[in-house]
Amino acid sequence: MAKRLFSSPSDSVHFKFREISVDLLTDFLANLNKSNKDNLNSLSKCSGNFKDKRLMEYIFLITKELRLDPLAGYHAVELLQRFMVKHLTDLLTTPTPQGAAADQPGSYEDAVFDKLKDKFPLIVFSCLQLASKLSLHSHIINNNTAVRFLHSVGLSVSKQTVLESELMVLKGLEFRLNTPNPLTHVEILLEVLGHNEPSIPVERLYQLCHHVLQFVSLQRTAIYESLLVTTTQCMDPPGEQREQFVTVTEDCMLLGVGVIAVAVFILYVRKWEQVVEELSHITGISKRSISDFVHVTLMHIVRTSSPLTST
Predict the structure, then answer these.
(1) Are the C-beta atoms of 75 and 131 separated by less than 8 Å?
(2) Which end of the chain has fewer beta carbons closer than 10 Å to its terminal beta carbon, N or C?
(3) pTM for the complete prediction?
(4) Which residues face 15 on adjacent strands?
(5) Alpha carbon 144 to its chain's center
């Protein structure tokens, strides 16, 4: 992975590429591919439900406000998705407490969601706090910072409450915090690309990849809906095709190569075909799949920016 050289708390994180040995880089890529495949093989029906645009924007804004590495934000999204699916499954499959209204089958579920709604902002923050602790080169959200920030956004909580929430999330995740996230994929793929194709200026691409990845994350629903239509050649794909397409929406490797290919198209269009071919060689993802992702993403970028360019 690109080496992170952390200078001081007030400085941004700088990267140096092409400094990792071939053997280490090969291991990174193999582990990344395995974790991505394992994740795709264990997806639940609720995968992606907690990657709503407003929720991801909320996490990204907190990440920026607390001056965390962007990696923490993307990792927090993945932790939140995993935790909430398991937590809700556990809550809703627990036998209905004695005394609950048997003649109102929806009442218990409504009570569960109402209770969870009050805790949800703190759960989101706990996921970000845990993610920050995995980024050893960056800031870590300690409990003092957590309480001050939560108070500033109107959540009156104590340090004990923050600790209890963090422990609840940890237990819900069974203390397994390593999970694929798209920014890690982009970083490692850029490192491999820079090694295999020294003429590609991956240092310049890196900053643009950050912007493209954030755009895709926030426009996730619209972009993947367009990609589904493009892939199936059907304007209204049936439910079965939508269920099968979930593996595409959760494929961090596809997202990683797609983001890099979009950035290359914007900055170095003459090298685009060369880069797409190399990314396909690195990951095994077809050039057609990468091209479809790029086409759809660029289409949405143009649509989003056109009102601004016309003024």
Answers:
(1) yes
(2) C
(3) 0.86
(4) 4
(5) 27
